[in-house]
Amino acid sequence: MRRSFLAVLAFTTGAALPLAAQSNDAPLRFTRFTVGAEATVAQPVGAFADEVGAAGGLTIHGAYHVTPAFSLRAEGNYLIYGHERRGDICAAGTCRVRFNLDTNNQIASGFIGPQLEVPTGPVRPYVRAGAGFGYFFTTSSLSGTASEAFATSQNYHDGVFAWTGGGGLRLPFAISRVPVAVDLGARYQQNGEASYLRRGTGITDNADGTVRINPTRSDANFVLWHLGMAVTIPHSRHRER
Hints:
Blueprint: H1 2-13, E1 30-44, H2 47-51, E2 55-65, E3 70-91, E4 94-117, E5 124-144, E6 149-175, E7 178-190, E8 193-196, E9 203-205, E10 211-213, E11 216-219, E12 222-234
Antiparallel strand pairs: 1-2, 1-12, 2-3, 3-4, 4-5, 5-6, 6-7, 7-12, 8-11, 9-10
């Protein structure tokens, strides 16, 4: 009777998957917070698709479950949509030490907003939305052929207001009695017009050693496809009284 009462209480107060996999000897409590990470692929759409190809990266996120069905979610995304490498670069009048010059075209973005989710069942559909920013930037780094990068410069950047919306499925299970969920879904990111550098044509190296920056300006929107996991944060262990 007591265990049934606790399960009903946890559900009505909004705890995320609480008490779902407890054993009699060591019960656990869980907070309303979940954190997670996702592998992400971005598919450019519209004018952006005419300028760049697909991008890959990572999303990290955290959510506060106000109720089992409603949560507030914050996320940060990092994508690379272009990469160039120039190798065997000599410096200081000698080629005894050779360098690599790597240039990355990148997008960082962050959002906060609501999420609505079916709170029970083995498959839990959800929808979400968010408002935030998109930051387009290009950096070049110098490294040795047998060492990591030791010098980096930013070549160009532009920031825009952005919003996102989408949905997906959560598939809950437990690892050592801690609630975990696989997260599979897609969302649209609206950046509007942004200025950015394209791989291959964004930077021109002049004969005198200077460079010319050739930004492209267009709509820069894309669809993000993601696959990841989310974990509910537990409280410390406690004993039943």
